[in-house]
């Protein structure tokens, strides 16, 4: 009784391919997460820079710094719908009205 030769992959070949795919995933996924974090940080820095610039524009227009970020929003210098990565951020001034930081919104 002769067996017909069947084309296909052996179990060893499949294990090697799965091992290579697993190794690639282990190397790529953490790198993607790090890049996502870097992109989010750059977005927050851009938001801070924009808010600081609008503070300077307010100063040029009024001859004084705004008393709060809310004042910039109320007078149309900033928008309340600024978001980063789908999460709303709170912008606050820490002492110096030209220095602005971002914190997570606790809502």
Distance between the termini: 75 Å
Low-confidence stretches: none
- List SSEs in N-to-C order: HHEEE
Q: Tell me how many strands there are.
A: 3
Largest sheet: 3 strands, antiparallel
Average pLDDT, rounded to a whole number, is 77
Number of individual domains? 1
Query: What's the overall geometry?
Result: rod-shaped
Strand order of the largest sheet: 1-2-3
Helix amount, in percent?
Answer: 40-55%
How many whole angstroms does the radius of gyration measure? 27 Å
Count of helical stretches? 2
Structural class: alpha+beta
Strand residue percentage: 5-15%
What do these coordinates show?
It is built from two helices and three strands, in the order H-H-E-E-E. The chain has one domain. Strand 2 and strand 3 form a beta hairpin. The radius of gyration is 27 Å and the shape is rod-shaped. A three-stranded antiparallel sheet has the order 1-2-3, covered by helices on one side. The longest helix has about 50 residues. The termini are far apart. With about 110 residues, the chain is α+β, with helices and mostly antiparallel strands.
Write the layout of secondary structure elements.
Blueprint: H1 11-62, H2 69-74, E1 83-84, E2 87-93, E3 100-104
Compact summary:
This protein has helices at residues 11-62, 69-74, and strands spanning 83-84, 87-93, 100-104. The chain is α+β, with helices and mostly antiparallel strands and 107 residues long.
Tags for this entry?
membrane; 2 helices; N_methyl_site; alpha+beta; 3-stranded antiparallel sheet; Bac_GSPG_pilin
């Amino acid at each position: 009784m002769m067996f017909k030769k069947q084309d296909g992959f052996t179990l060893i070949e499949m294990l090697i391919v799965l091992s290579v795919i697993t190794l690639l995933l282990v190397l790529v996924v953490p790198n993607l997460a790090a890049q996502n974090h870097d992109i989010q940080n750059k977005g927050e820095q851009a938001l801070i820079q924009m808010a600081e610039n609008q503070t300077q524009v307010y100063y040029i227009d009024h001859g004084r710094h705004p008393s709060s970020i809310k004042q910039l929003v109320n007078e149309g210098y900033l928008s309340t719908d600024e978001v980063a990565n789908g999460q709303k951020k709170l912008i606050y001034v820490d002492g110096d009205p030209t220095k602005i930081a971002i914190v997570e919104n606790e809502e």
